[in-house]
Amino acid sequence: MISRPIYLVMTIIIPSIVIIFFATFFNQGVPEQMPIAVIDFDNSSTSRMIVRSLNAGQMCKIKYKLTSYESAKTNMQRGEIYAFVIIPRNFEKDVYNGKQPVINFHTEYAHYLGSSLIMKEIQTTLTTISIGADLKVRLQKGENQYYAMAQVNPIANDSHIIANSKLNYAFYLSSIMMPGIICLMALMCSVYVIGIELKDGTSRRWLVVGNKNIVESLTGKLLPYTVLFWIMIIMSEIVMEKFMGFPNEGNPAIMYLGALFTVISYQAVGIFLTGLLPSMRTALSIAAFYGTMGFTLSGFTYPNAAMLDAVKPYTYLYPLRQYYEIYCNVQINGLSFSHTLVPFIILMLFWLVFPFSTVKHLRYAAVKLNYKRD
Amino acid sequence: MKVIKNLKSQLKENRLAWVDMLYIYRKELFNIFTDGGAIIIFLVATLIYPLVVGFIYNKELLRDSPIAVVDNDHSALSRKYIRMIDATPETQVTYQCFSMEEAKQLQKHGKVHGIIHIPKGFSKSINTGRQTYVNIFADVTSFFWYRNLSVATSYVSRTMGYEIEAKGLIAKGSTYDDAVRSVRKFIPQERVLYNPGGYPSFILPIILIIVIQQTILMGTGILAGKTSERSKWKDLTPANVHYKGLFRIIFGRALAIFTIYIPISIYVLILVPHMFNLPQLASGPWDTLWFILPFILASIFLGMTVSTFFYHRENALVVYIATSIPILLMTGFPWPREAMPNFWRNFSYIFPSTFGVQGFVRMNTMGASLVEISWEHFCLWVQVGIYFVTTFFAYRWRLTRKSRIKAIEDRRRKRRNRIANQKLSDNLS
Fold first, then answer.
1. I need a surface site. Which of B85, B208, B377, B408 has the fewest CB within 10 A?
2. Domains in chain B: how many in total?
3. Quick one: closest CA in B to A202, which residue?
4. Model confidence over B290-305: pLDDT tens digits?
């Protein structure tokens, strides 16, 4: 089946491009040096110190020092800055007089991730400076440093972020997105290769090669693609672990098995769709629609728990959701195979329920050769 | 008057060209509405997809993620800490465990998405004036779990810290007001200017623009593939006397798709945001439409250029579907432009969606006027120009005879297939 270049594109070129894209696109891991602006109405040594501290952070870089709220807002609307900080007039004086001035920092959440990170850093920096000012006063009063530190910050948070200590955001996205797109291609490909037999009118020959048994013919047809896509997903997992340095707590063999199960499940859905709608273009359009919804519904971008109750049952229609479950259980939480049986069993249900419900119809269409041209 | 007269005479001279173009326009519209695949892509996908996605993300803000607490201190202060954590909108204490092991098992099995461990001696340290700490174990299976836990704990630790410090100062003899003032020298205050709604209203406008671009690309590819398949010589145009002249064909086709996309854009970019209560700070529908006009034209011409490589109608779908998510990531909203590698940042300028999303989101979500997004608008018009030229050359290449040699070979192969089929049909039935 190397007769058409599209097969090569589907099985090797697109998955390879996807792997290369995700491997290089997130090479920074955490966004750094995102531009912000500062409006310093005070212009005192304290306010300048605050500006310097903000600039020294990892996430933010002060791109503009502006003089009015309006210009800062315009800059934000032009997409040049993600946030701006306003230091009020008489700031230093008010701090020393104990008047508790307010530093407003303006953010937007149109860039959800970038803004969240910037907000956290500005908040932390300003709080630290506030605490530092308190500490300075206490030290001047002659308090012991250890004691003073304990007084100004009695409860410290000790974060343990197991498995992703640098909070690499790419890790959240790529680990499912890469296999997900490859699985989507597996779905499209299975619809395509079966559909093309019906469309070109070669389906009878195909059946004869498979001993006139539709199950045997389908297996023979799809097996090479199963292996190809499986290898592609394994490659993506190896790239993630070795090249991008994503942590893996569990046994990679279980992940590979999970990938195989997911690919076969997607192919099963492909058979189901072709059987349901033997017209290739309709089946492909529906498959595309179904497949892209999977990225939203499988719950790795937006947790399933936050979805409406009416939507939740539909998430089970996606093998990708089970793959995500296996990934959480095995790669992140390091559970053994016996603890992750449920997603594997659900994936096996996909193989049984989906293809066999429409396989008869598919055989009928393959023999009848009644492909509609319009 | 002279100009009008000139125009009139010109029109008369080129009457045939206009007739041809309008004929092609009509024919293409007819093609679209009689083709099941094209209708699914152009109409059903654009009508239903935004609704379904909007419905899934309908629950704004993610609240009360379940967490476990291990309290080894068992004091009034530790219990207060736990109560405060429970009271935050971000987290909810669903399990109180006796050991870390138990809590870790719960997290491993997905029962909780975060653990807070309060060590022994927590309140003793506070009461004797030493610094103490709480251990936080975040769940990394999703960014949201980490975010909620970290927001909640940093808020509670800070607030309780201020309280303890102020109490200490009061105990030393300062007044309440002085104590409160000296623990917080100044107050950092966040003001959210745009999109306070969180994740759903962040991602939806981006998806809307991507849907428009991807359906245009797929649709043009499908239509071109279809004519190619039907035609005897795998031509890009049907055998018809009116299909002559590159400009007539290009304009006729582009106009047909453009006509369909006027109502679709109004629906997707104006009605859908209204239905799901997304931020709509754009100054008016006309501004949005004026901005989106070059976006649609650029998408159409890009689609027509690429469509010359599709000899089969189904191929377009397969190729474009895989690109949707990388294109979405390259728009600069899910992942900041500053953090992209240079290669991909430059590569993203190929797609109209990069400018389209930038302009549309800044207009609708952040209230920018056409002045603030003039750069994106300009770039889109440049893309229209460039892709029109590429369409011209690509069509010229496909309509020359050279590319037909391949088609003849294909026809021969098909005939062989048909003969082999005939022999086998007796075998089967």
1. B408
2. 2
3. B421
4. 999 999 999 999 999 9
